Amino acid sequence: MNSLQTIKRILRTDVLVEVPVDQMQLDDSLRESYGMDSLGFVELRVQCEEAFGIDIPDEAVAAGELSTLGDVLALVERLSGADQSPTTA
Q: Could you tell me which residue ranges the Carrier domain spans (predicted)?
């Protein structure tokens, strides 16, 4: 499972986003498209940290680096040193 698939799984199973995984797009706003609230963002952060073995700094969250699905993917890959294409679903 690549990074994008893992993030989508986290959104569906842990954050309880109702959008089907196959309809999630990189430019989807987590707040507008998925209806996430502050608790959802905390859960996403914690689950990504656990799944990828990374630490997402408060500054990244405050700077809006978790605004879209693509933002989350880019941040996770940057922090984990992963080099996977975001075009693979």
A: 2-80
Scan for tokens 């984990």, then name that residue: 80
DSSP 16-84: ---S-GGG--TT-BTTTTT---HHHHHHHHHHHHHHHT----HHHHHTTTTSBHHHHHHHHHHHHT---
- Is 0.85 topped by the overall pTM? yes
Q: Tell me which residues of the chain have a pLDDT lower than 50.
A: 83-89
**Which pair of tokens denotes residue 62?**
């405050």
Pull the structure tokens for residue 74: 């880019």
